[in-house]
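Try it yourself: sequence plus oxa(dethia)-CoA, in.
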Amino acid sequence: MISAPTGAPHARILGVGGYRPSRVIPNSEIVDLIDSSDEWIRTRSGIVERRWANDEETVQMMSVAASRKALDHAKISIDEIDCVIVATVSHMRQTPAVAALVADELGADHPAAFDISAACAGFCHGIAMASDFIRGGSARNVLVIGVERLSDITNPHDRGTAFIFADGAGAAVVGPSDEPGIGPVVWGSSGDKAELIQTPDWFEANEAKETPWLTMEGNPVFRWASFAMAKVGQEALEKAGITADELDCFVPHQANMRIVDALARSMKLPETVKIARDIATMGNTSAASVPLALERMIEEGQAQSGDTALLIAFGAGLVYAAQVVVLP
Ligand code: UT7
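Structure, out:
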């Protein structure tokens, strides 16, 4: 008989950090290309401005910067990280995984390192995996990164996407704990809706000399997210064994301010629950949106160490993941 893996009794988030690219792009810089207006964008999405990366702010560079902040916050040295997970859909090379390059640039001691593709839900998938790896004995401390440079694959002339998508990185260090700090994940997929958010086949795009732009049928995604995701959030609360009244913070994927509000309403979250609204100044940064929103709530003092937070994210696939976590 071989030995069974043994891990920590529980896992929790020990620290979070983010990187916000330096170029601030107000709505006024976008509206002419898509025959839109500042007012339309604010009313329909809640976005006032977003960040787009410059040439130096690569997926790797932003990941490293966010990770350094998360490690500082967690008071964990890079030597103690034995697994690095990067969630992204805008690292423009299929292989090698950017996670291995990020780990190397951070000076990590040869950790497991790989990328995952779960679009805007990638960070929440990574947190679920980290929790299971730590409890299962595959890793002691895991660095989970959500990062995007969506400006590379967003068509500036596309009315449905140009004003919404943006760039950035967020990271979390997940480690062992004596008490439960990451609740059971509720996750799933609806591949029958795959065509609602997608990039084309890259070989075909290349042959046609076209950029593989990201396309989105916004309205059906909006309706799906506003209704179906409230049930997913409710289930994550139930599985964590808490009620909405006991929840401190709600940190949904920053897809659209109206979706954030609709979810809070459908889930009947009491007014005492603090709600992340990072989208107003960051746009929709896909895999980076939840950790960036979380970082802001902690930095601005809206969220306190020990608070419970419901994370929920959804996107291309369509895929989704939600869990309740205890904040570092
Ligand atoms: O992050 C991954 C998951 N993604 C999401 O969750 C995004 C979900 N979707 C959304 O956030 C929203 O669907 C959008 C913000 C993208 C669009 O808002 P909407 O309320 O669904 O607008 P719509 O597409 O239904 O369009 C409404 C109207 C249309 O005009 P008519 O037919 O009512 O005359 C559009 O032609 O707004 C028009 N329109 C625009 N007007 C000005 C569409 N795009 C624009 C625009 N500027 N950019």
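One thing you can check immediately is this: The chain has a mean pLDDT of 97.
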